[in-house]
Amino acid sequence: MTDDLATLQAETEAALAAAADLRALDAVRVGTLGKSGALTALLKGLGAVPAEQRKERGAAVNRLKATLEAAIEARRVALDAAALEARLAAERLDVTLPPRPFPPAGAEQGAIHPIARTIEEIVAIFGAMGFALAEGPDIEGDWYNFGALNIPDHHPARQDHDTFYVPAGPDGRRPVLRTHTSPVQIRTMLGQEPPIRVIVPGRTWRADHDATHSPMFHQVEGLVIDRGISLGHLKGCLVDFLRAFFGISDLPVRFRASYFPFTEPSMEVDIGWNRKTGELGKGGDWLEILGSGMVHPRVLANCGIDPREFQGFAFGMGIERITMLKHGIPDLRPFYESDVRWLRHYGTSPLSPATLAEGV
Ligand code: PHE
Prior knowledge:
By secondary structure, the chain is an alpha+beta fold. The protein is built from 12 helices and 9 strands. It has 2 domains: 3-90; 114-359, 2-Layer Sandwich (BirA Bifunctional Protein, domain 2), CATH 3.30.930. It starts with a helix and ends in a 14-residue tail after the last helix. The site of phenylalanine has 11 residues, from β8 and β9. It comes from Teichococcus aestuarii. Tetramer of two alpha and two beta subunits.
């Protein structure tokens, strides 16, 4: 091989070794084999070589061309493999990573607030019965909170609710801080076609404050709308829920006739307990725990549902109340005081989520 060919080979091989990625490699390839590449120039120059040397020179240049093509290809394969390796390393998900100690050593352990915990449990139990979760706004239109629920303007039930009003909107009606979760019944029925099965936990508001009442509290609403729904479905559903929630498989449950404007017939639901000891399930006393009933035909009609075709039941209960009963918490006020000693005592570890494995 002549000197110029040996030099070109050495230079190209050095440049290939130095090419750290595919772009650098391509620059070397173009500089060698491209239209104005060094080797292409040699091939073009063959015509000017004296005839007696041309054959030998042509063979040598073509050998060098094959050598450099092979070297470029080899480098490309190596760089491709390295790029893939780098990607695999960067995107690796190590599923064998051991769990981190929780909480980290020395840190304070947080706890799930009893209200949040009760909501999780309610959602787990009703979720297993096929209920979906629904939500509505805390500041509610008068029609949703009262009117559509068959509570007209001068109905005495409006007074019972000790409503917080918000300054009137353009329609002259004062929005309210919702006094119950029942307006979400209306929103759900307006928003979807039956069959409907929803559970609605949320904040509610009434101007009332003592050891068992807070101006802000929580309720959970339930609503089922379908063809052929009867009081039997309501009773079965609530008995199952109460027994699962309190973890007492033979908890006595009593349905007592009552009145709500938006259900007909209406029933208050009581559970058996011992008034003196506070023990649930035994003792012969009754404790009111929730309101329920068959959705009033007028409420169905207000939501564009034909009451001759669809029936349903609804219920609503206070979350604080059932939480206090379940855990023997005597006073409502500490629920909102954020006292970490209380939270540590009544809170639940975030590592024990509400599941149906607990016997629900
Ligand atoms: N909204 C009623 C209350 O706050 C409870 C209820 C809900 C009753 C649904 C019947 C049906 O007291």
